[in-house]
Design goal:
Radius of gyration: 26 Å
Order of helices and strands: HHH
Number of strands: 0
Length: 95
């Protein structure tokens, strides 16, 4: 009996409805509040945990140990060098 209905007036497929529902639920999950993570109290985290860029859930992270025994001046110098190199890299990409 569906053969008498023109193709552009048929109801949407159930798979399309499921895909649309999954997309809506997935996009709504992006705006849901995230759980608060516990911060560690190591000596490394205590020194620079309030600096700009130390964000939840990881906090301050130094995987190479560049500031393991550095003071605030060395931290500020390394941050300035990182910004400079990032800006040079962005200019290099543009040509």
């Amino acid at each position: 009996s569906n053969s008498s209905i023109p193709p552009n007036t048929r109801p949407p497929n159930i798979m399309m409805k499921i895909a649309l529902l999954a997309a809506v639920v997935g996009s709504a999950a992006a705006f849901a509040p995230s759980p608060v993570a516990q911060t560690s109290t190591t000596a490394l985290n205590a020194d620079f945990s309030k600096e700009i860029g130390a964000q939840m859930p990881l906090g301050f992270i130094d995987p190479l140990g560049l500031v393991a025994d550095a003071d605030q001046d060395e931290f500020d110098r390394l941050r300035w060098v990182e910004l400079k190199h990032g800006r040079v890299a962005m200019l290099a990409v543009t040509g």
